[in-house]
Design a protein that fits this description.
heterodimer; A: about 110 residues; mainly beta; 4-stranded antiparallel beta sheet; about 0% helix; B: mainly beta
């Protein structure tokens, strides 16, 4: 079974703090994704990565950056957290050769910015 | 740009009632289609998927979905819901990139 783990289930930070959200997958997937999930808005793609050190902006990248130094790990960084970044953050991974495979999601990190 | 519409935001049913959740997408090319479910306090799980072939797709827990290409639709159905089906349901579409486009979700509440 594919396992995608995220470093924290719940996180509380203050405005202006630098925040790191970590995601690790154990299935040697090339593609990894970060989404945020908000009520009434569904999931929106923040950033994704096709390979180590590669990144692509998603639909809402403003205020975020990412890091992919190792294949299994994809980090989301909030350089200076703001209250409008309070949300549920979901990480996902998928093999490059899609076939009939899909994205596998982690449990999510609920971030509150005070 | 691709988009996905889920018209039902909140659905309330009694156990044994039939369910149909609407999903429409906008994209002119070949698509892969998915329904995901998120049970309270749990992570997002794949319910079913369509890539090609038979447009009637069967998933887990008695769910099925029908791809109607002419209507750009992929509606989710279940003939008889259970209390344990209470969850949020997301339709998602994938075009010629690796990006999944999600709908805004439908919250289903099933009462005993």
């Amino acid at each position: 079974d594919v396992k995608v783990t995220q470093s924290s289930r719940y996180l509380v930070k203050r405005t202006g703090e630098k925040v790191f959200l970590e995601c690790v997958q154990d299935m040697d997937h090339e593609n990894m994704f970060w989404y945020r999930q908000d009520p009434g808005l569904g999931l929106r793609l923040i950033y994704f990565s096709y390979d180590v050190k590669m990144k692509e902006k998603g639909d809402i990248p403003e205020g975020y950056s990412v890091s992919r130094e190792k294949k299994e790990r994809f980090s989301l960084i909030l350089e200076s957290a703001s209250t409008n970044q309070t949300s549920m953050y979901l990480c996902a991974s998928r093999p490059r050769d899609r076939g009939t495979d899909t994205q596998y999601f982690g449990p999510g990190t609920r971030l509150t910015v005070l | 740009a691709q988009s996905v519409s889920q018209h039902n935001h909140h659905v309330i049913l009694s156990e044994a009632a039939s369910l149909e959740l609407g999903c429409n997408y906008s994209y002119g090319g070949t698509v892969n289609l998915f329904w995901y479910v998120q049970y309270p306090g749990q992570h997002l799980q794949l319910l079913l998927k369509y890539f090609s072939g038979d447009p009637l797709v069967k998933g887990i827990k008695g769910f099925e979905a029908e791809f109607i290409k002419s209507k750009f639709s992929f509606n989710l159905r279940k003939p008889s819901v259970q209390w344990s089906d209470t969850a949020e349901y997301f339709c998602a579409v994938e075009g010629n990139t690796d990006k999944l486009i999600f709908g805004t979700g439908t919250r289903l509440q099933v009462f005993p």
